[in-house]
Amino acid sequence: MQASFLKTTNLSRIYSRGPHEIRAVDDVSIEIGQGEFVGIVGSSGSGKSTLLNLLAGLDHPTLGTIDFNGIDLASLSRPKLAQYRAKNVGMIFQTFNLLPHRTALENVELALYFTPTPPKERKGRAQKALEMLNLGDRFEHKPNALSGGEQQRVAVARALVKEPDIIFADEPTGNLDKINANQIAETLKRLNSEGLTIVLVTHDEHLTSKYAHRIYRMEFGSLVNGQKAEKPIDFS
Amino acid sequence: MTFRDVIQTGLGNLWRMKLRASLTLLGVIIAIAAFVSMLSAGAGMQKKINEQFDKLGLLFTIQVSPIHQEDGNDTSKVAPLNDSTMEIISKLPGVQFAYPLDDYKIVASFNDTVINTHGQALPIRALNTKAFSTMSAGKAFDSDSVKQTIVTDEFLEDFKITEPDSLIGKQLIVSIEVATFDSALVHIFMDDGKLLWNRLREIRFDSLFNAGYRSRIVQRELGAAIGRFIDGYLNSRTTVSETLTIVGVLDESREHLRIQPVILPLATAQKFSSAGFSGDMTDLIASLSSGQLFQSSGMESNKNYSRVTIDLKQGYSHKPVVDSVKAMGFRAFSYAQEFEEITKFFTYFDMGLGVIGLIALFVASLGIINTMMMSITERRREIGVLKSLGADEREIKLMFLVESALIGSIGSIFGILFGWGISRVASTVAKSFMVRQGEDPLELFALPLWLIAVAFALGLLVSLVAGYYPSSRAARIDPVEALRYE
Prior knowledge:
The structure holds two protein chains of two kinds. By secondary structure, chain A is of the alpha/beta class. Chain A has helices at residues 48-55, 78-88, 104-110, 119-132, 148-160, 178-193, 205-211; strands spanning 4-17, 20-28, 31-33, 37-42, 63-68, 71-72, 89-92, 166-170, 197-202, 214-219, 222-223. Chain A is built from seven helices and eleven strands. The longest helix of chain A is centred in the last third of the chain and has 16 residues, at 178-193. Chain B has two domains: 3-56 and 340-484, no CATH class; 60-335, no CATH class. The two termini of chain B are 26 Å apart. Residues 296-300 of chain B have low confidence and may be disordered. Classes of the chains: A alpha/beta, B alpha+beta. Chain A binds chain B through residues 53, 56, 58-59, 78-79, 82-83, 85-87, 89, 91, 93, 97, 99, 101, 110-111, 113-115, 119, 158, and chain B through 1-2, 4-5, 12, 16, 381-382, 384-395, 478-480, 483.
């Protein structure tokens, strides 16, 4: 494993539903090294997406710590956490989450609104990111004019454009056919090979076994048998 | 996220929900239009009064008059308004100068027409103040000693003259009848055309050696002489005339100053005053008791005026002067004080009208809240996406607050224009009604800058207040929940 730069210790996310307590993430300790491709697998409701949201700074843990380059995300204020999401994190969702009234270019540009990027540079960087994903001819297309695969590639471009430290992908191939799913997975692999850290959450074990260096398996909010690495992958 | 991004995003979002935003805007437009049109009526009337006061120079004058002792007969307590008290008033801080209302019964001869009217002396300094600045023709006197006169519109009516300009340069003979020592003395020697000689001829000189006859004759002739003196004083006036060139005609808006039809320069007035007494019995008695019967020119120093006008220095408040004059025992009337009362009335009047507009704005604000709440519900997922991209709560709040403010400001701009349109229509209707009633059409509506600013600020403020709760709710949305939202 590369030097760890994202690490959780005894991380828990507990929801209260009346008298009941739901432990969506229960005492999870994982480590992610810089430049790694880490897979988190598990069935629906296993807590893998909740764990991803905690790692991405979208949610606050109930217990435990999330250490990112020496900073405990659990202790950050909401504005600071927003800054972490804006500068360090890129997110890819199963449902793409593109804004339907904006063009592909505008959707990508939007990610730079919350970074210190000068407004004049935004368009150029967004175009570059889209071209990198072979969407050079789709700048002015709105999401409803794009195929599922193209929409997800726009979402990848949006995650990439701000040059984050880490990309969190939550079931990125879940809504795609096999060809498009492979394309996205290959894209992630290519990005990882260029040094970008990828955390892929999926129920598709085949996908993780093919692309991830290490896999964490979750069940009922916990890591299965505390197992950290199911399939260590050699970088070479 | 720059403020420009926020504005552009806000405008884009409003454009996306055109129909809903338009309906909400319409509510704001109607409310602001109601507010503007109602207040423009109040503002119009106030403006008219302000202009009138300013044009007439009334804010810089104070009218001083003696307080008449109505209860009891003790007149010694009444402070006299004469030259010496006027001198004291002139030296009060803030007083530019003071001049009396010194009027005369005169006979004016113009173009073979002779009428009895009134004249008034006015110093050139007074004529140069704003209160007398507007003339319908000509100008003020060249100096206090010139043989010139200014007439008023009342003079025009008396002489049935319609063109003020036609009077300029024309000669006006002003005459005044005065009772003098000379006229009274002449009467001693001449009574009903009978010379004293004729009366003397009736005396039997041979009987004068008789003490009883002599005494009767002396008593009779002395009594007759006194009677003829008084009769001559009162009835046989001397006419003093002056030919003056008409140099100006005051316009009719000077009515409030109660100016006499013919205005005389000080020198002419002085000539009339020194010529003799007015012929009033009280003047004669006063002169006899003061031993000044034969010092008619000395009368001026003791002359009591019915009114003195104070002209204030620029930048000085009327209040301390009014207080000082009142402390001297006079009645002081300030138009500035009246103006303050009128302004106060219009403030309450405007507030009353404004409340109606505010009710409309309150209803419009409910529309804004509704629109924003619906928008937040519909854009819940978008808020989640923006948060996942790094938007913090402050930015989300600002985005929605700006959308709300855009509705308020756009609505205010169109509302002001619409309100102005309504006031124009109302003004046209009001003017045509006035014309039908045979009156001069008055502009009753005004859209001053302060009203535009207040209406805009109010529209913006209401929209911000209305948008505060929805935007706070938007900011607090949990991104994880929002991203799951279908």
